């Protein structure tokens, strides 16, 4: 069980969750001193797409790495939950976009 919990940080690190938090202070300070404090961080990929990419990365790792049955079930379930959440999120965004269009 401890191996599953310790391995959980790997996919999050691959998603880039730790990177924005580590550079957040330097970016804010740099923008403040340059006079551009009002600018936001650019978002290259929408969050649901990033969730789908994370699920794909975990799935690929599951195929390549030999894990015990319990660990495989845990990560397969995690992938399933990520894909369902991303699809629901995309549907919500699509509905919001549809309501914003005139007509």
Element layout with pairings:
Elements: H1 2-7, H2 9-15, H3 18-34, H4 47-64, H5 69-100
Care to describe what's here?
The protein is mainly α and 103 residues long. It has a domain of 71 residues. Helix content is 78%, strand content 0%. It contains 5 helices and no strands. The radius of gyration is 18 Å and the shape is flat.
List keywords for this structure.
5 helices, single chain, 103 residues, mainly alpha, 0% strand
Write a brief structural summary.
The protein has 103 residues and is mainly alpha-helical. 78% of the residues lie in helices and 0% in strands.
Distance between the termini: 54 Å
The percent range for helix content is over 70%
Structural class: mainly alpha
- Average predicted local confidence, pLDDT: 78
Contiguous low-pLDDT stretches (5 residues minimum) are none
Largest sheet: none
SSE arrangement, N to C? HHHHH
Q: Roughly what fraction of the amino acids lie in strands?
A: under 5%
In total, the number of strands is 0
Number of helical segments with 4 or more residues: 5
Radius of gyration: 18 Å
Shape type: flat
